[in-house]
Every structure is written in structure tokens, then in C-alpha cells.
Design goal:
By secondary structure, the chain is mainly alpha-helical. Among the domains are: 32 residues, no CATH class; 37 residues. The chain has four helices and no strands. The longest helix has 16 residues. The radius of gyration is 21 Å and the shape is elongated.
């Protein structure tokens, strides 16, 4: 195994660092190992190991919708619920609280 002698200094938002390190800790992976894995994946993939792009659609801003557009969005949500493509509100709020 190669000796680790290079240092990397990066500025990161404190809450992002805290959340990521909490997850890594749960996985038993030190942050330095995760960064090393990330760099190795960059080398293997010859680029970022994930897709970087703008979302195809923007989230709907409800305040800017007409009554007809709002009704259509509500109908889409209802159709998703009937088709089983929805999650119970309790689970969604639990996920939000966990971050």
C-alpha cells in the first residue's frame, strides 16, 4: 500500500462536514479514507464518479401557479398516490428531521 504523505486542505460548510462525518463514522470510515476513495474513483472514472447536471425540471413554486395549474398539480399528486408512488407523510417528515 502506498504511503500517505500528501495533505489536502479544503474549506467546507460546517454543517455539511458534520453531517458527512457522522454518516462516515456510522460506516466506520474515517473522512481521510473517504476522500482517498473519492480521489481513486476520479482516477478510475477519468472524471467525477457521479453525474453533475442541472435537474431536468425545477420544483414547482406553488405561489406562482394559476388555479388551473394548481389543480393539475394536485391531480398529479393524487394519481401518484393511487399508483403507489407516494410515501406516508410521517415517513417523509421523519426523513426530513434526520437530514
Amino acid at each position: 500500500m502506498a504511503t500517505k504523505t500528501a495533505n489536502l486542505y479544503a474549506r467546507i460548510e460546517p454543517d455539511v462536514k458534520e453531517q458527512a462525518e457522522s454518516i462516515l463514522s456510522s460506516l466506520g470510515i474515517p473522512a481521510s479514507n473517504a476522500i482517498n476513495m473519492f480521489y481513486k474513483q476520479i482516477i478510475l472514472q477519468k472524471g467525477l464518479p457521479f453525474e453533475v447536471k442541472l435537474p431536468a425540471t425545477k420544483p414547482v413554486e406553488m405561489g406562482s401557479l394559476t388555479k388551473a395549474e394548481l389543480d393539475a398539480e394536485i391531480e398529479k399528486g393524487y394519481a401518484d398516490m393511487l399508483a403507489g408512488r407516494a410515501e406516508p407523510a410521517e415517513k417523509v417528515f421523519d426523513d426530513i428531521r434526520r437530514g
